[in-house]
Each structure stands twice: as C-alpha cells, then as structure tokens.
Design a protein that fits this description.
Helix content is 56%, strand content 3%. With 479 residues, the chain is mostly helical. Strand 2 and strand 3 (469-473) form a beta hairpin. Helix 24 (422-430) packs antiparallel against helix 25.
C-alpha cells in the first residue's frame, strides 16, 4: 500500500489494518528516539530523568532494543509502561523470536496486564496484541485471551485486540475457532469486535474451512455493518484454495452497485489475494478497472487486485499502463495502476522508463508521482540504472514532499545498488530546512541501507525534561 493510496482512502468509512501506519512526522521522531534510548538507564524518580522511546520499522531489530522495551514494562512511571507496550505490540513475531530472553516471563506479564480490569483499556489492548506476537510462550494463555474476547463487560477495543491475538497464534488457537466464529455471527457484538473476529478466522488457515460459509454469509448480509463485511471479504481472500468455490459470490459483491464501496473494494482485493484460483476472473476484474461508471475507489481496488495476480495478469500490463498514462483518469486510479505495475515484477520491467517518466513529470499529480517512485523501488534490479533519477527527485526542493518521501523509500528498497548514494541521503536527513516527512523517509531508507548511527542524528535532536522524564524531540523547525 503506497502512501498516496493511504491518503486516497482517508474518506472511506473504515481504515484497514494495512493503512494504520504512523505518520511520516512521527516516524522521523521515532527514528531519532530509537538511536538514543539505550544510551540512558531506567532509574528511580530520585535519579536523572527517564527516557520515553520508540522503535521504527525498517531498522534491523536487535536484542538490546527489545531488552530496553521489556525493562520499561516494570517501570514505576505509568506512561513509560504504556509506551513500552505500544512499541512491543508493533513488532512482528519473527522480530521477537529468539530475541526475547525470557519469553515465558514476558508472556505472563502481558497476560496479567490484559486481565487486569483496573488497567486502562487501551493499554490492555496493546498487551493483547503483544501477547499474540509471542508464539509458543503465549500458548498457555490462549484460554484467557479467548475469555477476554467473549466477555461482554470488557471494552470493545480490548476484545478486538484479543481476537487479533488469537488470529496470530496459529495452530494452538485453532480449537477456539468455533468461539471466534460465534463472535463474528453475534449481532449484539460491537462491529469492531466482529470485524477483528473475521480477520482472525482468515488468519487461522485450513481449520477455518467448516466456517467458510459463515464468513461468506456475513459478506453477503446487507444488514451487517460495512466494516464487518469488509473484514469478511478480507478473511475469504486469506483462505486460499478452500475459498475457491465461493469466488463467484465474491465477484458478485464486487459487481453489485448497491453494496457499500468499501465492501466492494475489499471484495476486489480479496480476489487479488486468492491467486491462481481467481485467475479465470481476471477479465471481469479488468472490466471494473475500465468501467468509467464504477466508483474510483472500486476501480483502484481492481487495479491493485490485478497487481497481486501475478503471471496470469501479465497479458494485461499494457491495459494497466494505459490507465497510468490517461490524464482523464482520477489520480487515485492512476496511483493504484502504478502500484499494480510495481507488484507485477519481471513482466513489468520493460515499462520502467514509462513509470520513471511519471515520476519526473511535474504536471502529474503528486500522488501519482509518489506511487510511480514506490513502484520503481519494488521492481528490483531492473530499476537500478535509474537510481540517479530517483535520487534527483529526492533532492529536488521544488518537488512535493510526498514525492520526495516516496523517492527515499524507493532508494531504501533498491538495496546494494543504492549504497553509493548514502551520503546524499544522509544530507537530506541532516538538512533542517527539508520537510519532516522527507527526512523521516530518508531515515527509514538509511535504516535499510546501513546501521543508523547515534552521532548521525544526535546533533539534530534536543532533550527536554518534564515530570521526571527525559524527552527527546525534533527541532522546532520541523514541528
């Protein structure tokens, strides 16, 4: 999902999990903090001030980072514990595996927080999410997580996170699939909880097969909330071969003009996620992209679906490119077309010069140029000869911050070939006159291309003290 498409979706009634990303301003802030937090000790109130800290995606996760976050869970200051839980929940299971020194002890601590009714619901929800990332160490607590999900007295945000945690705990959580399915079907349950239950079912694999009809019925039920139906479509898209017999039903949802736009868009993307099973329906999906009477959000979702259908969609690359080129087409559709091309790999490589032209064209919408930059970053070795062009977009002060940010992201994705340009990317990070979102993207790129050093960012941050905390913040010129 490109930055531009996230912006295009803001007005939709539900924000998908994939679009719940930190803003570029916060990412820059987090980058500075990550490089610094282990330089300080966690100490008592009578000693020097504490440090609030965050981690950032794109920088290699190491045991010392996790150690600092875990240590903060025992801190006497509530806000420190709160931020630690938030950041722990952001890690993926593979980041934590083999890194957490005492996973069983951590799992118990998180489970205790989740069960504690005196704890703020937001904090309990973060504890649930973090617990779901701990794999085997969390398995003894699965019954308790399931109880939280079922408890009507518990906040909807906590129940939603409990459902998500169960969906992430794999095979060990499969015995609880009937209970998760009951939550999905229960009309008295909050839409946010039912939505998370649907997504959990989609993540629990083959064991869900007896409940596929239940998920499908939720998708088709006009009385059900759009957010729940959307999540049901998403779940079906994750169930692979088992969902194949129901592809015509999903396609009918996409075709139905009376259905909520968000649900139709999710149906399109579900088809894109079903791979080979959905390939016979590529002409139908393409027709939605071509139909000018169809809502632009649905058309954009159709374009992204084509980008996910791999080899079978390759004959239609010229059609997708034509949408990128068509100035009469909305910017959101053109952005989605660029994103699709970036996902089609080797077959799209002959069209890299065309994609580059959109990045360079000052008359083209910033969102389209942004998606073109990110597409180039996804096209690997074939895009490497164009790294100087991408770098020029990053350095050009007249170019939109959105485009420059995406150019930085693209450079970070192009790996070894972009390393000679690290000094120039570093200059962007150092330049306080550059927009904060661009600097944050430069930091992310550097985190991918090399280790981000303390002395590289320390001169560009400041420390202030308040209420017993040491808070590292970006210069005022960036706020």
């Amino acid at each position: 999902m490109t930055t531009s498409n996230i912006l295009n979706r803001v007005a939709m009634p539900k924000i998908s999990r994939q679009t719940r990303k930190l803003s570029y301003l916060f990412l820059f802030y987090f980058t500075l903090l990550l490089t610094l937090f282990l330089s300080f000790l966690w100490v008592s109130a009578q000693e020097p001030p504490k440090l609030l800290f965050w981690q950032i995606n794109g920088i290699k996760h190491q045991s010392w980072q996790i150690d600092g976050i875990v240590a903060a869970l025992d801190d006497e200051y509530y806000r420190v514990k709160e931020y630690a839980l938030e950041q722990l929940a952001e890690y993926e299971p593979q980041d934590l595996e083999g890194v957490v020194k005492k996973p069983e002890a951590l799992a118990k601590k998180l489970a205790d927080t989740l069960k504690d009714e005196k704890v703020d619901p937001w904090v309990r929800s973060r504890a649930a999410l973090a617990l779901g990332k701990l794999g085997e160490a969390a398995q003894p607590y699965i019954p308790e997580i399931a109880n939280i999900l079922k408890d009507e007295q518990v906040s909807a945000s906590v129940r939603s996170s409990a459902a998500e945690a169960l969906g992430n705990l794999g095979e060990a959580a499969q015995p609880y699939i009937p209970e998760i399915a009951n939550i999905l079907k229960d009309e008295q349950v909050s839409a946010s909880v039912r939505s998370s239950a649907a997504e959990a079912l989609g993540n629990l694999g083959k064991a869900d097969q007896p409940y596929i009809l239940d998920i499908l019925n939720i998708l088709k039920d006009e009385q059900v909330s759009a957010s729940v139906r959307s999540s049901a479509a998403e779940a079906l898209g994750n169930l692979g071969e088992a969902a194949k017999p129901y592809i015509p039903d999903i396609l009918n949802i996409l075709k139905d003009e009376q259905v909520n736009l968000w649900v139709r868009g999710s149906a399109a993307e579900a088809l894109g996620n079903l791979g080979k099973a959905a390939q016979p329906y590529i002409p139908d999906i393409l027709n939605f992209l071509k139909d000018e009477k169809v809502n632009e959000y649905v058309r954009g979702s159709a374009a992204r679906a084509l980008g996910n259908l791999g080899e079978a969609a390759q004959p239609y690359i010229p059609d997708i490119l034509n949408f990128l080129k068509d100035e009469k087409v909305s910017a959101s559709i053109r952005s989605s077309a660029a994103e699709a091309l970036g996902n089609l790999g080797e077959a799209a490589q002959p069209y890299i010069p065309d994609i580059l032209n959109f990045l360079k064209d000052e008359k083209v919408s910033a969102s389209v140029r942004s998606s073109a930059a990110e597409a180039l970053g996804n096209l690997g070795e074939a895009a490497q000869p164009y790294i100087p062009n991408i770098l020029n977009s990053l350095k050009d002060e007249k170019v939109s911050a959105l485009v420059r940010s995406s150019a930085a992201v693209a450079l970070g994705n192009l790996g070894e070939a972009a390393k000679p340009y690290i000094p120039e990317i570093t200059n962007i990070l150092k330049d306080q006159q550059v927009d904060a979102s661009v600097r944050s993207s430069a930091a992310v790129a550097l985190g991918k291309l090399r280790k981000l050093e303390l002395n590289m960012v320390l001169p560009y941050s400041r420390i202030s003290f308040s209420g017993g905390f040491g808070i590292i913040s970006i210069p005022a010129t960036l706020v």
